[in-house]
Design goal:
Blueprint: H1 14-21, H2 37-46, H3 66-72
């Protein structure tokens, strides 16, 4: 939800600012509201949401917090 931009406008989230810093990159905001590490891993394994992204190269940035791992393995 940090990447997705919970509580901020589309021109105030992390992917937006990265796109302004690196204008030669095609930036996709694939953040998922309320998602955890397990949701991202599922996406990476199945390529569900990556069909429109070029497979010739790129960079993936995952933003998270330590609590995401704890929540994913139910270790609170």
């Amino acid at each position: 939800s940090f990447t997705w931009g919970t509580g901020v406008a589309d021109d105030e989230n992390f992917p937006y600012y990265f796109s302004k810093y690196r204008e030669n990159f095609n930036v996709y905001n694939l953040g998922i509201y309320t998602a955890g590490a397990n949701d991202i891993l599922d996406d990476l394994r199945s390529f569900k949401r990556f069909a429109d992204i070029s497979k010739t190269g790129g960079l993936v940035v995952y933003t998270g917090m330590n609590d995401h791992i704890e929540r994913s393995v139910c270790n609170y």
